[in-house]
Amino acid sequence: MMTFNDTEEMEYPSLKQAYEKAGIPLIKLGYDQQMTDFGQAKTQLETFNEMVQLNRM
User: Fold this and answer.
1) Where are the alpha helices (DSSP H) in the chain?
2) Structural domain boundaries of the chain?
3) What angle do CA 25, 5, 36 make, to 5 degrees?
4) Cα 49 from Cα 27, distance rounded (Å)
5) What does the CA dihedral 14, 55, 49, 3 come to, rounded to 10 degrees?
6) Which residues, in sequence order, are bridge partners of residue 10?
7) Is residue 31 within 8 Å of residue 41, measured between CB atoms?
8) I need a labelling partner for 44 at 20 to 30 A (CA). Which of 7, 38, 52, 53 fits?
9) Cβ distance 1 to 12 under 8 Å?
10) pLDDT band, residue 24 (cuts 50/70/90)
11) What does residue 36 show for φ and ψ, rounded to 5 degrees?
């Protein structure tokens, strides 16, 4: 989700609810157009991947 993007921020709660109802894992990442370091996003994605893999077992 792009920082300070009102449209995305307004849609997120309904998307989250729909994904949860369907049993689909969801992750919310924040970013902005001037980001140069994606280390934190990478760590969040790796953790999310591990959680999804554990839930499949």
Assistant:
1) 6-22, 39-56
2) 6-55
3) 80
4) 10
5) 20
6) none
7) yes
8) 7
9) yes
10) very high
11) -120, -20
The amino acid sitting at 46 is E
Tokens for 57?
A: 């077992």
Dist. CA 9–CA 34, nearest whole Å: 19
Two tokens at 15?
């998307």
User: Distance between CA 17 and CA 44 in Å, rounded?
Assistant: 21
What amino acid occupies position 34?
Q
Asked if pLDDT for residue 2 goes beyond 70, the answer is: no
Residue 30 near residue 1 (C-beta atoms within 8 A): yes
* Residue 4 pLDDT grade (very low, low, confident, very high; cuts 50, 70, 90): low
